[in-house]
User: Fold this.
Amino acid sequence: MDHLFSGGVGRRDLLKTGVVAGAVSLAGPAIIKARAEVPVKIGMIDPLTGVLSVPAQSEVEGARYAVKVLNAKGGILGRPIELLVEDSANDVGTGVAKAHKLIDRDHVNVIFGDVNSGIAYAIAQVTYQKKVFQIVPGGHTDQITGKDCHWNVFRVCNTTSMDANAITPDLIKHFGKRWYFVTPNYAYGHTLQAAFIKALKKAGGEYAGSMLPINTSDYSSTLIKARAFKPNVLLNNMGGLAQIDCMKQFIQFGMNKEMGLGGALFELEEIEAVPPVAQTGWWDMEWWWDQPKVPEVVSWVKEFRKELHKTPSARHWFGWVAVHSVKLAAEKAKSLDALKMAHALAGMELPPDVKLQPGKVFYRAGDHQLMPNVFVGNVHPARKGANKADVFTVADMVPAEKVWPLADTECHMTYPS
Assistant:
């Protein structure tokens, strides 16, 4: 009777087909479950040891907190998120080696890193070559989303030019136009000081300064030079433990009675580590926790404190945004393919519970740079009866596009065909 079945398909064939179809049907839920249990792997490289360890640890804490929150809500594309953290030890060669390990051995879907701009830049060359999606949470040097931008690389923190351009008017207003720089001699310091000098020269100012190794701990000779120059303000552009050491010695020399203090970044982690007398000056914050008129911020800070028993800093926010950006990109693209995710995230506006500030915050399509507000204000000791993290008063929130237009970036974004 097999010949009676149309299309040349016999009864036996149909029976076989039915068995196969039944097997697939029965295996379907198991296959789906197996896929759901395969994690989305994010490799995070940061200098967990060395002079930048404090901000690095905060970035990792922020990312881990975001992973915990998102995993409780189903992860990314229905799959759990796994964060694999590696220590770059503040060394470019080590950071690059860790990137290769995470990509080639651990098969991560995404790379985060690094706080050190030079390492972040070097890692970007690796991810570009290997076509891996990368987010730079906290490496600031302009080139990453500037003249050396790549289709696969996005950045959360500000560029050095954004920070310099936002704070320069306030430094001039409150202190004057004669500046002395104390700047780290690596990628971040080079582009930051260049941006400051460009802005200061436009205003008719003058300057002197010292470029120092990133791990400098003795500032005596540098501060003597600064005192001799008699500036209106000293710009302490060092970071992490190096910035803390410079601040302490600035006070020990009594120079706080002779000149102002300010610069691009004096982050919450560093402010809390110096004596109250050194908690002073005009600076940028790239995010700030005290925003009572933004309900999403109030709620997030409350939950963060409950979970981690501390007040979140901008570095915590960087980690939070980076992880959420992966989710937003993957779910818009419906894929973990790097190119599809890059197209999805370019131009995307962050939702209120991720941006955690007023106004439009988005990844600019032309350079993949996040465009938030730059929080400009003054640092001061915590007021009596206030939270111990109440050490900064926001004077203005400057839209990033105002201080870093796309035309200034030198980025010419191209994608693979």
